[in-house]
Write a structure and sequence with these properties.
Helix content: 55-70%
Shape: elongated
Largest sheet: 4 strands, mixed
Order of helices and strands: HHEHEHEHEHHHHHHHHHH
Number of helices: 15
Number of strands: 4
Oligomer: single chain
Length: 392
């Protein structure tokens, strides 16, 4: 029995290795993801980062000398204008030809000096600041001025200090921060990568051979239908597993490029051998279940084209399950890990977040394997059905 299953698996591997298009399908997603994510990261940085050689200019009306000096210290050039010119500067900001406009009350310093937060019934002195948030240079200038004015406002009524003399009050570790970023993104991406690998291989192996008539030849041999089903599913599982790992590795490498400013906090080296072992078990059991589901759908289909269309609803379901891992914390209750695929997402989230229970992951893997076994049994029954296998 084992020799027959191995023979089917060898046949599938030979067909895969002998077809250059299939090898390209295995490697192309990983290459494309790295290139696209890197390009997206560069593009997003260029959209949100100000020009390094740009000298920001703030047009001001009635700006006090003290604030003007602070702004210049922060690297913003001050251009004083009259109140009648403010409307023209607003138009320039709208037209992306100017960075910033600040309008102060004529007697700003006197109003600030006489204003009492406790007793004054009049509104506090108001500064009007105009900028264009779609222009990185303008947005950067605005943020600089807001931070500077907040600090200046605090200095006028400095009743207490916050974190004085403390260099770093954020006690989060680099490991926790890296794990948080990766655990938010990777479970969804991993599920999609694994599905992509399965969907790219299973329809060709089942409905493709059915369409070409080679599956009918296999069915009339002494080979047991259960051995044929197991051989195909196991071989497809291994190939899809390799595809998923290659694509996941490419994604982890490209994440720093995609995250831009947060790239310094992403480090895949925080995971140890135990973490990768649990992750491998989850991935393998998940792939086995996905291959079983797609194989069943493919067996009902008459052609590869029909199979690819039929698996689309399954893709939507898997996408929704994957996205669920991005919201909220990982569940600790065992019952969630009994749910196939959803338990996989929870397990991946826990591993990537470095906060997981080994028992929950084992239960999730067993659940996936049980349902995959049911899928193998169902595929065997379908292979035994002449109506399904020889339908045109």
């Amino acid at each position: 029995m084992k020799s027959n299953i191995v023979a089917v698996m060898k046949k599938e591997f030979s067909r895969f290795v002998g077809d250059r298009r299939m090898i390209v399908m295995l490697l192309l997603p990983a290459v494309l993801i790295y290139v696209v994510y890197s390009f997206m990261g560069v593009a997003m940085q260029s959209l949100t980062s100000p020009d390094t050689d740009h000298n920001p200019v703030a047009y001001t009306v009635n700006i006090p000398d003290t604030i003007a000096m602070l702004a210049q210290t922060a690297g913003i050039e001050i251009e004083r204008i009259g109140s009648g010119e403010a409307a023209g500067i607003k138009d320039k900001i709208t037209g992306k030809a100017a960075d910033l406009l600040m309008v102060f009350p004529a007697d700003f310093d006197a109003q600030v000096a006489s204003y009492d937060v406790q007793t004054s019934n009049a509104p506090a002195p108001n500064i009007e600041i105009y900028y264009n948030s779609t222009v990185p240079n303008s947005l950067s200038s605005y943020n600089i001025m807001i931070s500077m004015l907040d600090a200046y406002e605090s200095s006028l009524a400095n009743k207490f200090d916050i974190n004085r003399g403390i260099a770093d009050s954020d006690l989060v570790t680099a490991e926790d921060l890296s794990a948080s970023i990766i655990s938010t993104l990777m479970p969804m991406l991993m599920l999609m990568f694994l599905y992509s690998g399965c969907a790219g291989l299973a329809p060709e192996s089942i409905s493709g051979e059915k369409e070409r008539g080679t599956l009918a030849t296999l069915l009339v041999t002494p080979l047991k239908r259960s051995q044929l089903a197991a051989g195909k599913i196991f071989s497809l599982c291994i190939l899809a597993f390799i595809s998923g790992l290659i694509t996941a590795f490419s994604t982890i490498l490209s994440l720093p490029n995609l995250m831009g400013a947060a790239k310094d906090y992403i480090d895949a080296g925080i995971y140890g051998a135990r973490d990768y072992m649990f992750l491998a078990f989850v991935i393998l059991s998940t792939v086995l279940l996905m291959v079983a589901l797609i194989s069943i759908i493919s067996a009902f289909s008459k052609s590869v084209k029909e199979a690819n269309a039929a698996v689309m609803p399954l893709m939507v379901i898997i996408m929704l399950i994957g996205v669920s891992g991005m919201f909220g914390s990982t569940h600790t209750e065992l019952v969630y890990y009994l749910i196939p695929l959803y338990g996989s997402v929870q397990s991946m989230s826990g591993v990537f977040a470095l906060d997981y229970n080994g028992l929950n992951i084992v239960v999730s893997c067993i659940s996936n394997l049980v349902f995959a076994g049911i899928g193998v049994f169902a595929l065997t029954k379908m292979f035994n059905s002449e109506k399904i296998m020889f339908s045109k």
